[in-house]
Write a structure and sequence with these properties.
Blueprint lengths: L5 H9 L8 H20 L3 E5 L3 H17 L6 H27 L2 H4 L1 E5 L9
Antiparallel strand pairs: 1-2
Length: about 120
């Protein structure tokens, strides 16, 4: 049986040039990168702001603030009942918002696009 030199085999593999990607794959990747860069260059300079939370917050303020006021201990019994109903309306508005997020594309429908902020150039 012949003696196998492990150190020599390891050294030859470590110093061997690493095979690069096939030229077809390299060309395909470069083409995809150029297409992506063209898409980014063609896209307008805007930023998206989603307002899906705005109706929920408005409902919570409109129903929640009177509910807290009507829940004060100095209020009569009918005010406490109104407070209970308004609190459930506020919770229902939050629940409906989250349900509509799951069932409809509310985030996309309530997105506005604003121009990107640019820094002012400092002149001398």
């Amino acid at each position: 049986m012949e003696h196998f030199d492990l150190d020599k085999a390891l050294q030859s593999q470590l110093h061997a040039p690493a095979p690069g990607p096939a030229p077809e794959l390299d060309a395909a990747l470069k083409a995809k990168l150029w297409q992506r860069q063209e898409q980014l260059d063609a896209a307008p300079d805007t930023r998206a702001v989603s307002l899906w939370w705005l109706p929920m917050v408005a409902n919570f303020i409109v129903c929640g603030v009177p509910a807290v006021i009507f829940a004060l201990p100095i209020m009569p019994l009918w005010a406490h009942l109104a407070s209970f109903a308004l609190a459930w309306l506020a919770v229902g508005g939050v629940a409906l918002t989250f349900i509509s997020l799951r069932m409809a594309d509310l985030r996309q429908a309530t997105t506005i696009y604003l121009p990107k902020r640019t820094r002012k150039k400092e002149g001398f």
